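Justification of computing resources. Each target in the renewal requires a structure prediction run like the one illustrated here; the chain below, 185 residues long, is used simply to show the kind of job we budget for.
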Amino acid sequence: MSDISLRLDKLKKLIQTEDFLFGRGLSNEVNIRIFCYAPSEEMTIKYFVDTLLQDRTIVCNIHHYDLYKVFLEICDDKKIISSIPSVEHKRGTRFLLKQLISIAPNTAFVNKMLFSPQEIGKDLILLSGVGDVFPFIRVHNLLEAMQPHFSIPILVLYPGKYEDAQLQLFGKLPPNSYYRAFNIV
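Resulting structure tokens:
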């Protein structure tokens, strides 16, 4: 069994524990965890998420948000999906990027994710698609926007590194500071 498979097996067990779901052992910090993996393992992660969401033995309520799908929903709500290619062709990629960032700010993502928890100690937010939604949003900014709205654990599947309070997408881009999360497994 590969290293990523072993880590994902541990993760599956860990997210169902009361310590994880109630944030025990975090010294009263927010319950945000980062699961880092190599970008080359993206398909393994997608398979893991699909399998996890279909597993009827999971004891917690997983609220999964693929950030790229959320981004597309925001664009669809604004009725701009069909015009994106022509805007990029006419005005350029930089212009389009600025427009998309203004149309889909972090608050729009948070609003798409808001829900009422079903049972204290049973809900978990799982974020995936972090690499797919770059450069439209950066996960450290999204997590900051989410904090005031969610008191349940947030688990980010992150294609990159999180070391010394620095998130580095794909292990190559310039790192961004984010000190509120904890590495997991």
